[in-house]
Design a protein that fits this description.
With about 400 residues, this protein is of the alpha/beta class. The protein folds into two domains: about 230 residues, Rossmann fold (3-Layer(aba) Sandwich), CATH 3.40.50; about 150 residues, Glycogen Phosphorylase B (Rossmann fold, 3-Layer(aba) Sandwich), CATH 3.40.50. Helix content is about 45%, strand content about 15%. The strands form three sheets. It has a six-stranded parallel beta sheet with strand order 2-1-3-4-7-8, sandwiched between helices. It starts with a strand and ends with a helix.
Length: about 400
């Protein structure tokens, strides 16, 4: 296949940037031709926030770039990763003009919620889920604590829903988990075009020597629930050590929470290879999320290193486990249960070893590159077949079900 991929990079490296790089690598190694167009969100400071806001609704430069590329070659498919703010959903309509299949990745809840989290004030919030335009998110200033910024996101969503960008001009929508897919169905997106494909996680390059430690990896923000892991260390007793890798606006509060706990260490942000080493060296990766995680990339990275996961029953985290036992689940905020799991992992090495074997099997069977490639190619084939069969317009059933 010949694929045109489009992505707007974040100002600070994010999961969607990493996923785009990995998908391009995976497809090229499989023999597909991939042309990648990237916009850099650091340009926002240069062009100004008002112009960037306008581009998020309709980006003339991005649409022009797509048209120029599609005009030059016989592409089979246009795949859009992130388009906020410099690449607008309008590029999907440009793909339609040239008769190529159009695919949109949904890495989070962005088209349902202005802050993309379905989370506010420390708890799940689905107020906007059934609103064609997320007005409540605007009134509450959910995106960057700004009503104006939230209004920009809401306008983008409202305009393109009204134009039928996702219901009529998009042949496949890729969600990172069944949980995210169900939220988009509830939000009125066309069920038949919502497909599930996990992120691409390559085997780790680094190896680690197993140590009596646990690790938390990610942004230090309130929804990540890191304080649950800190308090679990306090309860678990002697010999339980936790490394917290990452940075974020909640770091000062978390450091204060951990004050006096010799078993808790903050490393700040580390290079990817250093993160891989720390995960591989740990008895388990802790995912104490208090929000509905869309996927849980670090969880799969742990499985790839044969490291078990102790995670909350939130969002897509339970999906990581399947029917195997590559770790354990606990209720959100249950410090007592997490402390028990950590204590057992330290004391019962036979149990820990069995979890490590299960983690490796889970990665090999479900998340290894070959498995993800097969899913990707299947979704692409479905989108292309939809074009070739002339089934581009929304069916009567879709029109009745969909508001997107």
């Amino acid at each position: 296949m010949k694929i045109l991929m489009l992505h707007s990079r974040y100002q600070q490296l994010g999961g969607e940037d990493i996923e785009t790089e990995c998908e391009v690598k995976l497809l090229r190694e499989a023999g597909h031709e991939v042309v990648l167009i990237e916009f850099d969100n650091r340009l926002v400071e240069e062009i100004g926030r008002l112009r960037a806001a306008a581009r998020s609704i309709w980006s003339v430069p991005a649409v022009r770039a797509v048209r120029e590329q599609l005009h030059q070659g016989e592409f089979d498919l246009l795949h859009v990763q992130n388009y906020l703010p410099l690449v607008s959903p309008g590029v999907l309509r440009a793909g339609r003009e040239f008769g190529v299949a159009t695919v949109q990745s949904l890495h989070n809840y962005r088209l349902l919620c202005t802050n993309a989290k379905l989370f506010r004030d420390g708890q799940t919030c689905e107020t906007c889920l059934n609103q064609p335009v997320p007005i409540s998110g605007v009134l509450r200033g959910c995106y960057r604590n700004s009503r104006l910024a939230s209004a920009t996101i809401a306008t983008m969503i409202g305009v393109h829903r009204a134009m039928g960008t996702w219901s009529r001009y998009t042949d496949a929508l890729i969600t990172v988990s069944d949980h995210v897919r169900e939220k988009y169905i509830a939000g009125g997106f066309p069920e038949a075009r919502l497909h599930v494909k996990p992120n691409v996680i390559f085997p780790p390059k680094a190896e680690g020597r197993l140590r009596d430690q646990f690790v938390v990896v990610g942004r230090l923000t309130r929804e990540k629930g890191v304080e649950t892991a800190i308090e679990a260390v306090r309860l678990a007793g002697e010999g339980v050590r936790l490394k917290i890798i990452g940075a974020g606006e909640d770091e000062a509060r978390l450091r204060q929470r951990a004050e006096g706990l010799a078993g808790v260490a903050f490393t700040g942000a580390l290079r990817p290879v250093e993160v891989e080493t720390e995960i591989a060296s740990s008895l388990a990766l802790i995912m104490p999320a208090s929000w509905d995680e869309p996927f849980g990339r670090t969880g799969v990275e742990a499985f790839a290193a044969e490291t078990p996961v102790f995670g909350t029953r939130r969002g897509a985290i339970p999906e990581l486990f399947g029917d195997t036992l590559p770790g354990a689940l606990f209720d959100c905020g249950d410090t007592v249960e997490l402390a028990r799991l950590m204590r057992r992992a330290v004391d019962d090495r036979a149990w820990t070893a069995s979890l490590r074997l299960a983690a490796g099997r889970r990665y090999a069977d479900h998340f290894a590159p070959a498995a993800v490639l097969a899913r990707t190619e299947g979704i692409y084939a479905t989108a292309i077949a939809r074009v070739r069969h002339g089934d581009r317009l929304t069916s009567a059933a879709d029109r009745n079900k969909s508001r997107a």
